[in-house]
Design brief:
The protein is of the alpha+beta class and 131 residues long. It is 24% helix and 36% strand. The radius of gyration is 16 Å and the shape is globular.
């Protein structure tokens, strides 16, 4: 039997996809954006092979895909700061639409993206996880 979870309208939740060069640069950007409360969570999903046109050439390289979880209210600031911190001249910043989200997760994201929030995300032993 499936358990019904409280579901909220997802329009307040923002998920942003962004690629970075392989390496640790994404983690430095993630820490900065988390510290500034512009997002509640960043997932580095996996390394991918990318092939694209750039400055008249076809370029092939390895990148990592990251997902930033934030709120609609903080989204403009997130985009501005991500653009400023990103190592690419033209970063990929794609906002995904969310139809619905479980209420507890949405509440957590909203609380964490509040500029005056105190972090509540730990490893279960009171230690904040390092990226």
């Amino acid at each position: 039997m499936a358990v019904a979870l409280p579901v909220a309208n997802g329009s307040e939740l923002v998920i942003v996809l962004c690629t970075f060069p392989s390496g640790s640069e994404w983690g430095e950007v993630a820490h900065t954006l988390l510290h500034e409360r512009l997002c509640a969570c960043v997932n580095q999903v996996r390394e991918v092979a990318s092939i694209y046109h750039w400055q008249g050439e076809v370029v092939s390289n390895r990148e990592v895909v990251c997902m930033f979880k934030s709120t609609a209210e903080r989204y403009p600031e997130l985009v501005a700061r991500l653009t400023e911190l990103h190592p690419y001249d033209v970063p990929e910043i794609v906002r995904l639409s969310v139809d619905s989200v479980n209420q507890a997760y949405l509440d957590w994201v909203v609380a964490e993206c509040s500029p005056d929030a105190e972090s509540s995300r730990t490893d279960g032993n009171g230690q904040i996880d390092e990226i």
